[in-house]
Each structure stands twice: as C-alpha cells, then as structure tokens.
Amino acid sequence: MWNARIERIRSEIETAEATRSEAEAKLAKIDSDIANADAERRRILDEARETAASLKTQIVAKAGTDASDLRARGAADVDSAKTQATSDLQAEIAVLALGAAEKVVANNLDSATQAELIENYIQKVGAGS
Description:
Blueprint: H1 2-108, H2 111-128
Subcellular location: Endomembrane system; Membrane
GO biological process, one term: proton motive force-driven ATP synthesis
Main location: membrane
C-alpha cells in the first residue's frame, strides 16, 4: 500500500514537473512573442516617423516651389497689366492730342492758308512722280 501511494505521489510529481515545464515553455514563448511585438512596434513607429519626416520635407519643398511660382506669376501679371495700362494710356493720350491738334489747326487755318497748304502738297506729290 505504501508502495502504491509512493508510486502515485511520484507520478503526480512527474506530472506536475511536466506541467510546470510546459507552463515555463509557454511563458518563454509568450515573453518572446511580447518582445517580438515590442520590437515590431518600435520598427513601425520608427518607419512612420521617417515617412512623416520625408513627407514634411516634400510638402515644405513643394509649398516653397508653389509660393515662388505664384510670386513669379503675380509679378508677370502685374508687369503685363502695367504694360497694357501704359499702352492704353499712350493710345488715349494720342487720341486726345490728335483731337486737340485738329481743333487748334482748324481754329488757326483760314481759307487762304488751307488753299496754300493744299497747293504745296499737290506740288510735292507732282514733283515726286
């Protein structure tokens, strides 16, 4: 009877040791999985930081380029508008000056002076032929 009891206790101890070994192996696997997951988390975070830094650099560079292009287009538009305004103003001044000159000439020419100018013009045209 003692032998059976000793054998049963020995069997339970062996079973407990086997269970303990399995539990320790599972715990080691879980610890390893946690360490791997932590390493993967750090890798993903590092990669995300690098990607974010790269995107930030690209966005800032593009914004700078876009701003420069916008400034250049704005300056070109201003220059074009200035040139057009100057041209329009010169044309308006020419029209006004011509109108004023016509009035001055019309007021200052009498019939005799007009006839003399016409005669001189005809002679010049005739001499050129």
